[in-house]
Amino acid sequence: MAFAIWGGVFAFLAVALGAFGAHVLGDKLSTEMMSVYHTGDQYQMYHALALIAVGILLRLHPDSRLLSAAGWLFAVGIVLFLGSLYALSISGVKVLGAITPIGGLCFLAGWICFILALAR
Questions:
Q1: How far apart are CA 81 and CA 77, in angstroms?
Q2: Contact 81/21 with Cβ under 8 angstroms?
C-alpha cells in the first residue's frame, strides 16, 4: 500500500501546487513558463493516480515485480520530471530542463512495466 499512499501524497501536492501556480505565480511567470508549470502539474496528477493504481493492484498481486518496478519508476519519474519542470518554470534556469527527459523515460518504462504486469 506504500505506493498508493505516496500516490495520495503526490495527488495532494498536485492540487496544492496547481492552486499555488494559479493564484501566486499566474502573473509572475511568462506565458511560456506558466505552460511548463501547468504541464508539470498535469503529469504529476496523472502519475499520482497511476501510483494509487499500482498500490491497489499490488494488494491483489503482492509478488509482482513488474508492478513494483512500475511504482518505483512512476515515483522517480515524478521527482525528476516534475521537479525539473517546476524548478525550470520558477527559476528560468534552462539547464534544469536537461533532467526532464530522464524523468520522462522513467514514466515510459513505468508504463511498459505496468502493461506487462497486467498482460500476464
A1: 5
A2: no
